[in-house]
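Aim 2, interim progress. The first record below pairs a target sequence with its structure tokens.
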Amino acid sequence: MTECPVLRLLLICLMGHLIGNSVVIADEVSYAAKVAPLRRRSVTFPGGSSNRDGCEDSPKGTVCVVSSRCPGFNRNMKRCGWSNLEPKVCCEEKKLAPVSLPQNLNCGIRPKRNPSGALRKKRETAQDRLWRALQLSKSIESLPLNAPEPGLGLRVSKPSVVGGQEVEPLSYPWMAALDKKTYGTNFRFHCGASLISGRHILTAAHCFLKGEEKSPTNFTVRLRAHLKTGGTRYNVRKIEIHPGYNGRENYNDIAILILSREVSITDYVSPICLPQAETSRVRNLTGTTAHVLGWGHTSYGGVDSQVLLEASLPVVDTAQCNAAYKNVASRSFPRGITNYLLCAGYNEGGKDACQNDSGGPLQVLTNNRWFQIGIVSFGYGCAEPGFPGVYTRVSRYVPWIEEVMSKTS
């Protein structure tokens, strides 16, 4: 970025830089894409990510961070970007100030007790185990015996949690249900979502594919919901779809809803944390256990779950994910699995997001707080062996999220 020579031009330079960085261009993947239909339903921290963007020619051990985290910051330091209205500079990593969470925002904290006052416990009855076994057997019976031919048979769908188990009611206070108007004043469950502030909901852009589906009056958001039809309903004032999303491809599959009224933050309605520190944004999560939530189908082509389900999944290396999808690439992701996407799932299958889980959170527990690392986006069927689910990588979009929130708070 070219520095402004005088103070009165600083705002102009700032705005120009922010606008110039509002559209994310995904990295290219060097293989010829095959043509296949893809159904949508998710973001990752691949090992190849770097937090040295803009500081590559600086001494080793230097990273690009916001100036408030760099002790001894001065205007002679090399600038490497902006975060909202704060400059980012190349700073020695060993000197970084610790990251503190906003004092007025207790994000990512699950309640210790459910609304009835009973202590929250992790428990699974014999009936639960039988139900899980039946759902798993159904998903396995529906799998093809062999891998699909290149360019053929790729079933892409809005996802739902396959192989998951029911969560304790209201134990994830940021989980949201996005409902779509059917007729009159009736609404029906459409996608998953997550609360990221008192006014903002994070979800997938492909939940608003058609022109008429972009009208805020066609959607409502429910919070404090455990049953698929329960919770407190909020109207939507505005829908912000990422400017890089074109509806034909699965890249930049992220959107923010601005609610028409402020949410009252309680133990059972509170936001999930987003990756804020640069070091956490580029952290290699391969092998880390993540958790996906949803009310979607419990098997491919099956029925929605009536209660909120959770499944634990390992984050998969991006190169491995690219290899899995190479033979079934399509017009939906011609550049392959870029580092703006994240993959999670077991090689043997059995657990995954599925149809109608789109837009829901993929989350990890760090320092006793839950952080959203992904948004359910797409995959090959549901819980298919060898095909992890694909998520929008939230860390890559934090600057855009911050920009939208600053304009609509």
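The second target in this work package is listed in the same format:
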Amino acid sequence: MIRIMKADLFQRIRIPSFFVTVAMLLFLSVISTPRAKGVIQVLSIDPSVYRQADNPSWLPSSAALILGLILPIIGFLFIRNSLSLDRETGVADLFMTTRFHRFRYVFGKFTANCLLLVSLWLTVVIGTFFMSILRFPGQWLSMYQFLSPFLVLLPGILLLSALALLADTLPFLRGTFGTIAMIFFILILYVLEAMRNKQEGLNLFNLSGTNYILDAIKQAGIVAGKPINGL
């Protein structure tokens, strides 16, 4: 299983699209930096009440919000062909016709998907850290304060890895049609997240993790005695 995971992981991090994706996410770390004034307002919280982007805590929250919306789509497109590549090279048929346990094969692929998505997640975390140093020199957040907005995205990575593997396993979800169908499904999950306040049971569909971040921001406003009305 470990060999399958390592082989799949190393195969896909060597392709040009991986480096292009990493570069895009590093650029995301830059443009998602909140600014008090500017053409692009990534995160605006009650401007009439709160001073905007005046401390480093804005950076991880803003970057995690944007990453939570973008990573499910970009990540799915990047990891969705894990089994298809093995079918093209004949590796999948070899594993399915030998005594090698199918569960170990599939779980190795799932683990590789998770690690690939975590590497993309880590790219934004590192990029945001350096942006916080450049933007707010000498002002430091604790490790928990900095990482907590990003950590809520990790459960969605597990779900996304499973969805990509499922789409590559079912015959009718392979190819271009399957890609479009799964992207549409992810967009539906976004809608279900937005409806969560009306139906709490929809928490299960919090793929992007953004609801947890928004709730934390609103709770911080309540604790500060200034409830947030506009976000």
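The mean pLDDT is 77. This observation will shape the mutagenesis plan for the next reporting period.
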